[in-house]
Amino acid sequence: MLRRLCLGLVLLGLLHAACSRSPGPITVEDNILSVQNQTSSDWHNVVVTVNDHFRGGTPTLAARSRMAAPLSQFQTAFGQHYDVAHPVFKVEVTATDASGEAVKLELDRRRK
Fold first, then answer.
1. Which CATH number covers residue 53?
2. Is residue 93 included in any domain, yes or no?
3. pLDDT in tens, 40-95
4. pTM of structure
5. Of 22, 67, 74, 107, which sits with the fewest C-beta atoms within 10 Å of its C-beta?
6. Is residue 3 in some structural domain?
7. What is the total count of domains within the chain?
8. Domain-located, residue 15
């Protein structure tokens, strides 16, 4: 009886893991914005834009790696820092891959 219960719990756990959505390449959690390069090519000149105005980035994001930064570090061209009291509704990532091709990712929470 106990063995069946344990087996059932294990199967339930596996089913839950299989049905869970995997996170996308852009995530915002606990005021930390993360971008994951899920490709096999390095990205160069990575620019991350939050809510159309606040920018940050990195010179290089290696293949299969991730960058993470506090939202408060993103700023406008005038030096205004992102206020974490405001919701993130859009994140756009642009870069160039190792072959020179443009990379563009977008997270838009306004779309349904």
1. 2.60.40.2890
2. yes
3. 999 999 999 999 999 999 999 999 999 999 999 999 999 999 999 999 999 999 99
4. 0.78
5. 22
6. no
7. 1
8. no
